[in-house]
Amino acid sequence: MNSNRPFYLCSREFKANPSVVYLDEVQVGSKEILVIAGPCAVESEEQIFQAALAVKEAGAQVLRGGLFKPRTSPYSFQGLGAEGLQLLIEAAKEHGLLTVTEVMDLDHLDILAERIDILQVGSRNMQNYPLLRALGKLKKPVLLKRGLSATVEEFLAAAEYIMVEGNDQVILCERGIRTFQNHFRFTPDISSIPLIHHLSHLPIILDPSHCCGKREWVAPIALAAIAAGADGLMIEVHPEPENALSDGPQSLYPQQFITLMEQVKNVASAVGRGLYGASAI
Ligand code: PEP
Ligand code: MN
Fold it and tell me: Fewer C-beta neighbours within 10 Å, C or N terminus of the chain?
């Protein structure tokens, strides 16, 4: 292994064909687009059950819901922590959804690893190398989000930390980067999608919610990502965004999510992809 190369196992030189990450009956990186949706954070039993129902009805496969929240301010809602775990699991189970939640800390692995389907590494932890290595030892799907100011090479080198420990079930997630376009919370880097597909065999999805920061931009950016070849989307949806404890302004209303899923289906079909549960034709 050439130590001048920041990544190899995730590269196309190591593996020419795209990798597929298997999540029960659904897959990421195959013809079908994976859709993860749900609130920023699990807030209450009522909220997460309503969210699970809404995202399932619209056609999502995975329920998101943060338990340990990496908030910019320590005074903001920090998540329900371990107390919310059972709510997330039960809401997902009731509607036949898989689960994803963020692991912020090595200690969280003990609580989450056995019970959550996909473990998320948030942007702020993209270069937390002990955490990445620990996830590499687990052999369980990891959703790795791009750091707020990370280059694509740094992003892939972070994925390499997971893979070098033996876990190749890595799903990359673009979530926007800092630029001088300051109307959005972060600039959605649509260019990273074809670039990552060129450099790496790993699947790449887009989180339009955290880039846009406002719900009005979420649909066009989500559709642009699918047109650019993204393997999936992760979208914040809240039953009552105006009452959300975090990221309400960027969360879609359930009805908006239903409309978006119809549009995603059409754009996916135009680029030879499909949505689970919907014909690509
Ligand atoms: C999230 O998806 O809950 C999140 C906090 O996103 P990011 O790490 O991309 O800011
Ligand atoms: Mn959020």
Answer: C
**Cβ–ligand 1 contact at 145 (below 6 Å):** yes
List all residues 6 or more positions away from 162 whose beta carbon is below 8 Å from its beta carbon. Answer: 132, 133, 135, 136, 142, 144, 170
- Residue 50 CA: distances (Å) to CA of 101, 199, 211, 251, 254: 17, 40, 25, 14, 10
pTM of the model: 0.97
How far apart CA 233 and CA 161 sit, in angstroms, is: 24
| Vertex 120 angle, CA 115 and 122, to 5° | 145
What is the SS3 assignment for 37? strand
The closest residue, in CA terms, to atom 6 on ligand 1 is 122
Distance 12 CA to ligand 2 centre (A): 32
Unique residue bearing structure tokens 């359930």: 254
Least Cα distance to 47 among 255, 242, 259 occurs for 242
Structural tokens at position 40: 């920023």
Summarize pLDDT for 153-202 with one digit per residue, the tens: 999 999 999 999 999 999 999 999 999 999 999 999 999 999 999 999 99
Query: What whole-number distance in Å separates Cα of residue 224 and Cα of residue 33?
Result: 14
Q: What's the CA angle centered on 205, arms 241 and 91, to 5 degrees?
A: 45
For 24, left (φ over 0), alpha (ψ -120 to 50), or beta? left
How many Å lie between the centroid of ligand 2 and the Cα of residue 2? Answer: 38
User: Per residue in 17-43, pLDDT tens?
Assistant: 999 999 988 999 999 999 999 999 999
Of 118, 127, 172, 133, which Cα lies nearest the Cα of 149? 127
